[in-house]
Amino acid sequence: MSDYYENYLTIFLFVLVGLGLFGAMIGVARLLQPRRQTAAKLATYECGVEAEGDWWTQQHVRYYVFALLFVVFDIEAAFIFPWATVMGSIADAWAVLVEMFVFIGILVVALAYVMRKGLLRWM
Amino acid sequence: MEFDGWTALIGTGTVVAVFVVVMLMVILAVWAERRVAAVMQTRIGPNRAGPFGLLQTIADGIKLLMKESITPRQVDRLVYELAPLLAVLPAFLALAIVPFGPGFCIGGQGTDCSGGYFVDMQIANLNVGVLWFLSMSAIGVYAALLAGWGSGSKYPLLGGVRASAQVISYEAALSLSVVPVVVAAGTLDTQGIVLAQSQYRWFLLPLFIPALFFFVAALAETNRPPFDLVEAESELVGGFHTEYSGVRFMLFFLAEYVNVVTISALFVTFFLGGWTGPYPVAGSVNWAPLFGAIWFLAKTVCIIGIFFWLRVTLPRLRYDQLMALCWKRLIPINLVYLMAVAVWVAYQATGDLPRLVGGG
């Protein structure tokens, strides 16, 4: 087995140990904890006062805008990382550099546009 | 290298060692945070359980284990149970790529360790180490979101939505502040990043702005003060974990501190030269791995200390300030700085200025 897979095997082991730790904690707690449930205990705590109305409330649309922005910038990062890794070792580094700068430039313009439209203002 | 019993044993050994070291650090960190906060606020702090209150965290842990873990009637059972797991597991998993020291050789000969076993002082020496860390910290957002979603309660829902917006925004800032490090080191492998900083060429100085932004984004990613809007107790009761009690609450608490340890360790790896230190230089003596680990842990403890210091010092940000800081300051400045670093690296690589006409 090559080193490459061996590393992922160790990570798999790490996941298993993590899951085991989680399971052990929940299991030990289940053994140790008292279990005296009453209707008042099982009610939603919220803030200590009796909960009123539906908890499934609408959230503001501004959260959605940030989710969209995140998708743009995270995908940008996904494209930038491979470039960043090999950039210094490519013979014609300047050509690679200019290509990426065009890409980043478009994104900066996009961010400026979003800012100008006032979407980054939290009102 | 052959895969046999010894390799398996070494793998298991590193996994167990990392778990033990991190759990110890978490236990001490919780105690240290309370003591540091007490000193800064001229209080006494926990001093009853054990010498200097050192066993306070363990006492609290046992207390939480023995408390009734109530599952309220309104919760979405599956999501509610899944959230603590998704908080704890990625927090640990991100540690897999942290190099605690230089690798060493058992029973082998020469630099390539022929005939012996080479032990990496990290769980997995991945060639995509940085991406592994970023993806694990991105999974962490599910914990807050699902906890808020599944709790069937108003404040956790608000906290969960806030958390997801905050964490994904700062995720973008965090990954963009790591890119200059990757450009400068020319590798995604964390051990390679540390080696690129040997002989005191720490990235902290040339990449000071990304380092600062990484730290700010790290504070926000881990929901630590002054960015703890997710659990702002004056507005949201307890935030996304309001409806959790007993052991499940403890798991969220554990995850927060594991995240602090992880992200401090990564800050040290990316910007403070990892395990390199003034004595001894890697490979010169047999004890280099041990000293490497000591330097690494010492640096990490210093960074964790800054986390505590900021918690006591700074007031919580408003949500609009938080978002403006990320999208109007961190991300654009990071992009500009990245371009500057790239120009410098390209100049170093080619030793030449760009030829604008007829290049290539």
Describe this structure in words.
The complex is a heterodimer of chains A (123) and B (360). Chain A folds into two domains: 3-50, no CATH class; 61-117. Chain A contains four helices and no strands. Chain A has helices at 3-32, 39-42, 62-86, 93-116. The longest helix of chain A is centred in the first third of the chain and has 30 residues, at 3-32. A two-stranded antiparallel ribbon of chain B has the order 1-2. The two termini of chain B are 41 Å apart. Chain B has helices at residues 5-40, 56-66, 77-93, 129-150, 154-185, 190-196, 208-221, 233-236, 246-271, 288-313, 319-350, and strands at 104-106, 117-119. Chain B is an all-alpha fold and 360 residues long. Chain B is 63% helix and 2% strand.
Helix content, binned percent of chain A: 55-70%
Radius of gyration of chain A: 25 Å
Uncertain residue ranges of chain B? none
Compute the number of structural domains of chain B.
1
Q: Give unreliable regions of chain A as ranges.
A: none
Strand order of the largest sheet of chain B: 1-2
How far is the first residue's CA from the last residue's CA of chain A? 57 Å
Largest sheet of chain B: 2 strands, antiparallel
Identify the biggest protein-protein contact and residues per side. A-B, 76 and 89 residues
Strand content of chain A: under 5%
Based on secondary structure, the structural category of chain B is mainly alpha
Please outline the helices and strands:
The complex is a heterodimer of chains A (123) and B (360).
Chain A: H1 3-32, H2 39-42, H3 62-86, H4 93-116
Helix pairs in contact in A: 3-4
Chain B: H1 5-40, H2 56-66, H3 77-93, E1 104-106, E2 117-119, H4 129-150, H5 154-185, H6 190-196, H7 208-221, H8 233-236, H9 246-271, H10 288-313, H11 319-350
Antiparallel strand pairs in B: 1-2
Helix pairs in contact in B: 1-9, 1-10, 2-9, 3-4, 3-9, 4-5, 5-7, 5-11, 7-9, 7-11, 9-10
